[in-house]
Amino acid sequence: MPGTITPRDVAQLRDAIAWAAAEEAPLELRAGGSRRALGRPVEARHVLDLSAFSGIVSYEPEELLLVAGAATPMAEVSAALAARGQMLAFEPPDTGLMLGGAAGAGTIGGAIATGLSGPRRVKAGAARDHLLAFAAVSGRGESFKAGGKVVKNVTGYDLPKILCGSHGTLAAMTEVTVKVLPAPPRARTVLLFGLDVAAGTRAMADALNSPFEVSGAAMLPAAAAARSGVDFVRDAGETVVALRIEGTPASVAARCEGLRRLLAGRARDEELHSMRSRRLWEELRDVAALLPADAAALWRVSVPPAAAPALCRDLPGAFFLDWGGGLAWLAAAPGAPDAHAARLRAAIAGCGGHATLVRAPDTVRAAVPVFQPPAPALERLSARVKDGFDPRRVLNRGRMHAGM
After folding, report:
1. For residue 156, is pLDDT > 80?
2. What are the helix (H) ranges across 74-208?
3. What count of Cα atoms within 13 Å lies in the side-chain half-sphere of residue 100?
4. Could you tell me if 112 and 50 are in contact, meaning their C-beta atoms sit under 8 angstroms apart?
5. Torsional sign, CA 378, 384, 388, 391
6. DSSP for 158-170, written as a single string
7. What whole-number distance in Å separates Cα of residue 238 and Cα of residue 220?
8. Given a cut of 90, is residue 1 above it in pLDDT?
9. DSSP codes of every residue in 351-380
10. Do 199 and 303 fall into the same domain?
11. Do 281 and 302 fall into the same domain?
12. H-run or E-run covering 385
């Protein structure tokens, strides 16, 4: 009979997974559940509830280190860091509203397992760059640890990077150690209005390559800008390029002035300060507010920024760009049985990009490759990695690929 297994400690978790492996009974890993709709529907009758592995284990602000149970709510982590003027620099998105659920339900383990990073990735790096260590139980029912509390060169496999973005298909994480950074005391956003995609991506590239340390570079078509809760953006009536600068007040003011001089003459410009700037980047991070809520499918399309103008001519729906044009969020127009998968992947085939179906009905997610189909050599390598961690395929079977 299907049911929920709720281990209270690591020993019970080992026993539960060892039982599943022996019985070949796949398990769906779940804690907060806010990212459950990411990936393919899991091929499992039993739920492994990891919510007991919650709470901040240790926090050393002076060492920029936080150790927490994998099921610790992101809200708890963010509040603890904010109280000491620090943050998770990879800016993990709140996927609740993006996936049709409630805001604020995510956990730090879910953020690491899905590997999603927000707008600051262009400056601070991806989620995998901030995971220093973890403790977990493999699909063999064996507990293990990897990584350490310092950033250094090591021999052997970098297991934190392998687990990050694995969507719970390799191991059930119980504890994570992450690098944190001081939160910038001030942020401003330089806005450019009315540029087309080609001119907008050139402006973002010039800003990111400038000495002004831009920490976010995004472009909103007029339709996306009109959905913003920030008045300067919502009322623009045209495309908006947003360039974020963070730091001390004097530094931010000087760098914004320098950036506006660098881009002078290209478009009408404006600046967002304090709360307006913060709200815009929260909208860009969490995606949902800027795209139609009734779209049949949500895609995350990654391409070289130079390929963005050509890609945007082929996108079948409403979109906006992040990461200087390297990431397109697309609310695909309804009506295509495959959620436009074939069309999108054909459009990016020549530039080395990849497209991930983030949100769609279960029937579509079960029928369409949700993640970019890997090259044969990479597919074989992934299977070998999976064999090492979970040879019986009992952890989140089918989440990333059918039967895997």
Report:
1. no
2. 74-83, 108-114, 121-124, 159-163, 197-208
3. 14
4. no
5. positive
6. -HHHHHTTSTTSS
7. 9
8. no
9. TT-EEEEEE--HHHHHHS-SSPPPPHHHHH
10. no
11. no
12. helix 376-389
86 and 130 belong to one structural domain? yes
Same domain, 208 and 144: no
CATH code, domain carrying 92: 3.30.465.10
pLDDT of residue 269 exceeding 60: yes
Q: Which candidate, 54, 119, 125, places its Cα nearest to that of 93?
A: 119
Write the pLDDT tens digit of every residue in 206-219: 999 999 999 999 99
Give, as one character, the DSSP assignment of residue 307: G
Pair 52, 168 in one domain: yes
307 and 253: one domain?
no
Express each pLDDT in 314-372 by its tens digit.
899 999 999 999 999 999 988 899 999 999 999 999 898 999 999 999 999 999 999 99
Are 223 and 313 in a shared domain? Answer: no
295: which DSSP letter? -
For residue 52, give the amino acid letter: A
* Per-residue pLDDT band at 102 (split at 50, 70, 90): confident
Same domain, yes or no, for 296 and 355?
A: yes
Model confidence at 152, pLDDT cuts 50, 70, 90, reads low
Flag whether 366 is in a domain.
Answer: no
Pairwise CA distance, residues 127 & 400, whole Å = 19
Instruction: Provide the residue range defining the domain that includes 306.
Output: 291-360
pTM equals 0.94
The CATH number that applies at residue 264 is: 3.30.70.2190
Whether residue 367 is contained in a domain is answered as no
- Cross-strand bridge partners of residue 131: 178
Tokens of 14: 């080992």
The last residue of one of the domains, among 253, 286, 319, is 286
Least confident window among 16-20, 255-259, 287-291: 287-291
The CATH number of whichever domain residue 326 belongs to comes to 3.30.70
Residue given tokens 């499992």 in the structure block: 44
- Closest C-alpha among 261, 331, 252 to residue 299: 331
Q: Given the structure tokens 């478009």, which residue do they identify? A: 267
**Number of folded domains in the chain?**
3
Spell out where 56-198 has E strands: 56-60, 65-69, 86-87, 131-138, 143-147, 171-179, 181-182, 186-193
- DSSP letter for 395, please: B
**pLDDT above 50: residue 153:** no
pLDDT at 381: 92
Tell me what pLDDT residue 295 has: 74
Tokens of 267: 């478009």
